[in-house]
Design goal:
Blueprint: H1 3-35, H2 40-43, H3 47-56, H4 58-83, H5 90-116, H6 118-133, H7 137-147, H8 149-179, H9 187-224, E1 228-232, E2 235-239, H10 242-255, H11 265-271
Antiparallel strand pairs: 1-2
Length: about 270
Amino acid sequence: MDAMNLLFFAAIFVESFMTYSLLRRFDVSSTAKLAARLDLQKYEINPTITWLARKIGLEKAFTVTWLVIGLSVATADGFVNLSFPYGVPVFALIIGFGHVLAAAHNTHVSYVLDKVGIQQFEREHEERMTELASLSWWGRLRAIFHSDPGSIIMLVLALPLVYVLGYAMVATELFTRVVIPNIYLILPLNVAFCFLMAMVVIHPAFALGPLVLASRYSHNIRAQGSPKASVGSDGIRIDLPVAMVAQALDAARADGDSVVRISFPRITKEMGQ
């Protein structure tokens, strides 16, 4: 690598790292706000974030993922632009736009929380996870398809669509280089291609999210135990895990409610109610 290429690599590296850092801030900020209201172990799709948050805390988890992913993405953008000078940090834009779309989803969740309250939101989530956890993997996919067919269809089409968009991006760059050798003319097109790729890739994440959460829910239930009901001469007795009661109390306090609501879909099914 000669001095000119090294300088170009360094410029793209810095541009990529700064672009990724800026765009991911939207996701980090919205996730931190949700973490103050909800248990991310139950709602965060990214298993790396939940695992690191348990080990070192959420803020440090954000820092670790920012450095590891940001430096990796910047390095990849540097080498890619040496071969195909797109003029933009491709990977930083694709992943960064993905973070922006994830932040939009988090903002919608915050709106729902404000509208229905934390207790109602958690009760509906618990019922949904209980339903999915009781199904096979094929049954879970069918259930998600019935509730969100668009995300499942995008999951199937994601790979060919990414290939087509990548091919179009390379073809546009080569055509422009031959016909009109001015890289600044294709910068808007390349940014648009990156945004479209992010939209295509984020839908599979939304589709697979409930599968990840249902699997984690099943594991947590086995780890902490589930409510158990028994019928005796003195009536019905329900034994609750301490963690479940603590979460319900936190949700009630956050909503300002004077009562605690805990749903037991698994118990009511077993008791035939």
